[in-house]
Design goal:
The complex is a heterodimer of chains A (540) and B (288). Chain A is built from 20 helices and nine strands. With 540 residues, chain A is an alpha/beta fold. In chain A, helix 1 crosses helix 4, helix 16 packs antiparallel against helix 18 and helix 17 runs antiparallel to helix 18. Chain B is α+β, with helices and mostly antiparallel strands. Helix content of chain B is 16%, strand content 32%. In chain B, strand 1 and strand 2 form a beta hairpin. The N terminus of chain B is likely disordered. Classes of the chains: A alpha/beta (540), B alpha+beta (288).
């Protein structure tokens, strides 16, 4: 083998997702911040990296899901307007802070935020004119970024009883992807990596060629997978499944040895929202005036000390550490891939999958880490080639046929996170809604006018209730009351509309109100829930 | 359901939607969901009408004389010997849902909610869908074209990170919680309460050196239902009700006597009910 030929491949996969949270009925809504924070800390910084790498001629490959709820939020007028308000206020505070902290130990970090928010404004306004999906599309069209889709509302498919629901989640997602990115999705991130054997036929029907699985989804597959998780397998339908590499996952995530715990990195829990004098910070809090995190943090992890003993954050020192961690990550992948290639007698593909929001939001320096990693992979080594799953499949189309096992990436590896005493009460209501939705779609093959609008809104309410996030939040106990309220609200909205449709007494005012509140998938066509459409897809 | 019909930013009145979810949908039906290789979740609804019809056919005292059960059928096609393999789990229909434990993963199951009469005959009320559980282990099937020698496959499993199976993002979140106070408080509350499904399975397989082994443990599931707006405590601690007024919790069950007084107080605090449950556990092992 020639020395300059690679010994294997690395596919970096980031899963970007937030539930659809948009409350036009309130001026100011706390949970909408999840989206704005992720925009400032993860999504826009990623685009910033791609812009810089492209400008300096560094080639890179990354695969990233942008789930349909996230696409809908990124494209939504109201949220775009509210995001402008969000970053403008942050920038205003950052500018004041540069003056206030002059000649203190916090000047450098204050400068960092000022620069950061200016850059966010520049990218958001001057580069993408408020349409950041266009930014992602640009890098996809260059072949550097592969954007994949996800179930329409991140629905947890193994707990659905009706295949119409599975088909609807996939079809709506594929159509929404085409609308935003101008071609069909090649890959999909199944929400929570939750795979139910056989559901892959609905991926195939939409032209989707691959999806991802947790490690045991592959290695508990049948027959035994010859290369473990280091080569994809084809499901009997012909759709490829890539398995997660745990070594690279643990290297980043592990509580003891993972990178994000380094004492030079930024401390998440010491936030200016609590540190600044109340009257000074009040304009940057929510309308209720309660102190909360505002996303600007001036301290480093420092060590095992109380929050009030944390030392000032040093941006340059933290950046150096991120570079060194990127070097360590690359070194380990080189050794891993050399070893695997020797052992398997074949070039392995290592698939490293993470929540995108880990980078930048939870691990602030994570985006720096990725930038250094892309650069080092490109300039400093030849052992590992970064590829997208599509590229791998076109180079290596001959793969074993294996029926993967039911699995998820949740705690204990199956469905328990989404089905336990905190959330099992939801499913009888959810299943009833799906059953009724299918009944409506079958009963009205060609509705128009107000009835058609009502049916489309029914479909929106059903898919919003299907989001796996509600069950997840109930399990972990954070935002439990918000997630319960959301599930209950969508259930009532659906049931109310259903009764009005069946009783032929639609209240248009109320329908209009719901269309205004729950405006996900403006292009919704309720017939996606019909049994005929599902059966057609399953046969394709 | 009210209709506001107004579209403006002042429309912030609490929605009429926060009332409780329907208790039922007026249909006798049941559904079965897969949780993991050894557990499934079943929920059911039996309408008054169905009860009356059953009584008409089988006698007015049907529900007094019959034992209420979930009949769990193994319907895996591979066996095909015609004999239905099943076992019964005693329940109370009022529970409306149950977690069903099966010994063997990788098989197909369906359940039927019904009554076992004193003469041993079974009166089925409603059947569920069929669920195919994952095997939860490496397949015995190999294919010739892609054969690997066994020793290599064991090493491949190690390289693939078999030791991390099940330590997905939830596990990761728990690990990070050691530093992140917010999550820590959530998880530690759950485990000291002993309720959390996240901490329920502590069975450790003994080190690989021992060929034959057995581990067993049991937990306690307490469940009930009351008015959705009631105030309920178990052992003096507040219980959060589901929107339909049901509640359930799992407890670790150590040897000895566990006393679980359940108290419910109506919202207007004029009425209350109390049920006291005592559970005794005694475990013995052969010490091998």
């Amino acid at each position: 083998m020639a020395n300059n030929e690679e010994k294997g491949y690395l596919s970096l996969v980031l899963h970007a997702h937030l539930p659809f949270i948009r409350h036009p009925e309130y001026e100011d809504f706390l949970e909408e911040d999840w989206f704005f924070e992720a925009m400032c800390e993860t999504y826009i910084p990623l685009l910033d990296i791609y812009e810089r790498l492209t400008a300096e001629g560094t080639d890179f490959r990354v695969t990233m899901s942008i789930t349909p709820p996230l696409c809908n939020m990124m494209a939504d007028e109201l949220l775009r307007e509210r995001f402008r308000r969000y970053y403008s206020l942050r920038l205003e505070l950052a500018e004041k802070e540069v003056v206030r902290t002059r000649n203190t130990g916090f000047y450098e970090v204050a400068k960092m935020y000022e620069t950061k928010f200016r850059r966010i404004r520049e990218l958001y306004e001057d580069y993408y004119h408020g349409r950041i999906l266009d930014g992602f599309k640009k890098f996809q069209d260059m072949g550097k970024l592969e954007i994949i889709t996800c179930g329409a509302t991140h629905g947890f498919l193994p707990l659905e009883l009706r295949k119409e629901a599975v088909h609807a989640q996939i079809k709506l997602a594929a159509d929404n992807y085409r609308k935003h990115f101008g071609r069909g999705p090649r890959g999909i991130w199944l929400a929570e990596c939750a795979y139910n054997p056989g559901d892959d036929v609905f991926l195939k029907a939409q032209g989707i060629r691959y999806f991802f699985l947790e490690t045991h989804g592959i290695i508990y597959g049948s027959p035994r997978p010859r290369y473990g998780v280091y080569a994809p397998v084809y499901c009997p339908s012909g759709v490829a499944a890539f398995g997660r590499d745990m070594e690279s996952a643990q290297q980043v995530w592990s509580a003891e040895t993972g990178y994000p715990g380094d004492h030079r990195y930024r401390e998440f829990y010491r936030d200016l929202g609590y540190d600044l004098e109340y009257d000074y910070v009040k304009p940057y809090l929510h309308q209720d005036g309660v102190r909360r995190n505002i996303g600007m943090k001036y301290h480093k992890i420092t060590g095992k000390v109380q929050l009030n003993e944390k030392a000032p954050y040093n941006p340059a020192e933290a950046r150096d550490m991120a570079a060194s961690h990127a070097g360590n990550f690359m070194f380990n992948r080189e050794r891993q891939i050399e070893h695997l290639e020797h052992f398997l007698g074949k070039k392995p593909i290592v698939v490293s999958m993470y929540d995108a929001e880990l980078y930048g939001h939870w691990w602030y320096e994570g985006t720096d880490f990725l930038e250094f990693l892309f650069k080092k992979m490109h300039h400093d080594q030849k052992t590992v080639k970064m590829v997208t799953p599509s590229e791998y499949l076109s180079m290596h189309p001959d793969n074993q046929v294996v029926q993967p096992s039911m699995s998820t990436w949740g705690d204990k590896g199956y469905n328990e996170v989404w089905l336990n005493g905190t959330n099992d009460w939801m499913y009888r209501h959810l299943h009833k809604q799906v059953e009724r939705m299918v009944e409506l779609a079958n009963k009205f093959p060609a509705a128009d006018g107000t009835l058609r609008r009502a049916l489309n809104q029914c479909a929106r309410e059903v898919v919003l209730g299907m989001s796996s996030d509600w069950a997840f939040l109930m399990t972990v106990g954070t935002a439990k009351s918000y997630s319960t309220k959301r599930f209950v609200a969508h259930t009532h909205r659906f049931n109310g509309l259903y009764e009005q449709i069946v009783g032929n007494r639609l209240e248009e005012g109320w329908l209009k109100d719901l269309e205004w509140r729950d405006n996900i998938f403006p292009e919704m066509d309720y017939r996606v829930f019909s049994t005929e459409e599902m059966e057609k897809a399953a046969r394709s | 359901m009210t209709s506001s019909g107004q579209i403006n930013n002042k429309n912030t009145a609490p929605e009429a939607e926060h009332k409780a979810l329907p208790e039922g949908y007026g249909t006798t039906e049941a559904a079965l969901l897969p949780r993991d290789p050894n557990w499934m979740f079943i929920y059911w609804e039996i309408t008054e009408n169905s009860r009356k019809n059953l009584c008409k056919t089988h006698g007015e005292d049907l529900f007094q004389k019959g034992r209420q059960v979930i009949r769990v059928y193994d319907v895996s096609a591979a066996d095909g010997d015609g004999a239905a393999r099943y076992f019964d789990i005693p329940v109370m229909f009022e529970a409306k849902s149950w977690y069903v434990n099966v010994q063997e993963g990788g098989r197909a199951y369906c359940c039927e909610v019904g009554l076992v009469l004193p003469d041993g005959s079974f009166v089925g009320i409603v059947k569920t869908n069929t669920v195919n559980l994952p095997a939860g282990r490496v397949s015995n099937v190999t294919d010739e074209k892609w054969m690997a020698v066994t020793a290599d496959f064991d090493k491949l499993l190690q390289l693939s990170g078999v030791e991390y199976i099940g330590k997905g993002s939830g596990e990761v979140a728990k690990s990070l919680a050691q530093r992140w106070e917010m999550l820590r408080s959530v998880f530690s509350r759950a485990s000291s309460w002993g309720v959390s499904s996240m901490s329920s399975q502590n069975l450790q397989k003994p080190e690989l050196a021992k060929k034959f082994w057995l581990v067993a443990d049991c937990e306690l599931i307490l469940y009930g239902a009351t008015e959705p707006d009631a105030f309920v405590t178990v052992s003096g601690r507040k219980v959060n009700l589901n929107p339909d007024g049901t509640f359930s919790m799992r407890f670790a069950l150590p040897d000895g006597v566990v006393d679980l007084p359940v108290k419910a107080m109506s919202k207007d605090e004029t009425d209350s009910r109390e049920i006291d449950i005592k559970v005794t556990r005694a475990t013995t092992t052969d010490g091998k």
